[in-house]
Amino acid sequence: MSPETLLLFAGALLILFVTPGPGIAAMIARTLDAGPWYAAMYGAGILTGDIFWFTLAVTGLSAVAQQLEAVWLAAKLVGAGYLLWMAGSAYWSAWTGARPKPVFAAGSRRGWAGTYLAGLAMPLSNPKPIIFYLTLVPAFIPLEAITPPVYALMLLIMLALAVPTAGAYIGAAHKARDWLKTPAVRRGADILTGSVMLAIAVVLLLR
To answer: Which of 205, 207, 197 shows the shortest CA–CA distance to 23?
Structure first.
C-alpha cells in the first residue's frame, strides 16, 4: 500500500476521532463522574469497537455484519441504557446535590469491566463508526492491498491517533473537575451533561 493511501487513512481517522460525537460526550461525562482512569477504560472499549468494525471491513465480512441485526440491537440497547443511567445520575445530582451510587462500583473488577463493556457498546451501536469503516474505508482503500503487515500498521495508526485524542478530551475534562466543585457551576454542568446524554440515548434508540 502506498504512503499516500496510508496518509489518507490517517487523515480520515483523525477527523473521525476529533469530531465530537456520542462516544466523546460519554467519555467526558465518565471523567467527571468517576475520574480519568475510568474514562480511559471507557475509551478503550470504544477503540475495541472501532477495531472490530475495521477488521470486518478489511476481511470482507461487512455484508455479514450488516445482517447481525440482533447483535446490533443488543449493543444499541446496552449503550443507550448506560447513557440514560448517566443522564439520570446527572439530573439527580443537579436537583438533590447528592452523588448517586455508581452503577459500576469504583475500584472493583466489576467497575472496570462494566465501564469497558459500556464503552464497547457505543461504537457497536453508533452509526458513525459503522458507516466509516464498512462504507468509506472500502470505497477509498483497496482492500486487496491490506496484507497482514499493512493491517498491523493501520492498527498502529489507529492507536497513535486515538490515544492522544482521547487523552486530550479526558485531560481537559479532568482539569475542569475542580472548577465544577462550585455548587452553582456543578448544578449547571450536571443539567447540561444529563441533557446531552439523554439526547444521545434518544438518537441511538431512534436510529
So the answer is: 197
Q: Is the pLDDT of residue 205 over 80?
A: no
Contact assessment for residue 133 and residue 17, using Cβ atoms and an 8 Å cutoff: no
What is the distance between the alpha carbons of residues 166 and 47, in angstroms, rounded to a whole number? Answer: 10
Q: CA-CA distance, 3 to 21, in Å (whole number)?
A: 29
Categorise residue 48: left if φ over 0, alpha if ψ from -120 to 50, beta otherwise.
alpha
- In the chain, the percentage of residues whose pLDDT exceeds 90 is 12
pLDDT tens-place string over residues 121-148:
888 777 677 777 877 777 677 777 888 8
Distance CA 171, CA 128 (A): 24
The residue count of the chain comes to 207
- Cβ-proximal residues to 15 (8 Å cutoff; 6+ apart), any chain: none
Decide: 9 and 153 in contact? Cβ < 8 Å: no
Half-sphere exposure of 106 (CA within 13 A, CB side): 12
Q: Are 81 and 191 in contact (CB under 8 A)?
A: no
| Residue appearing with cell numbers 468509506 | 136
Q: Is the pTM of this model over 0.70?
A: no
State pLDDT tens for residues 29-54.
778 777 888 889 999 999 998 998 88
Contact 59, 131 (CB under 8 A): no
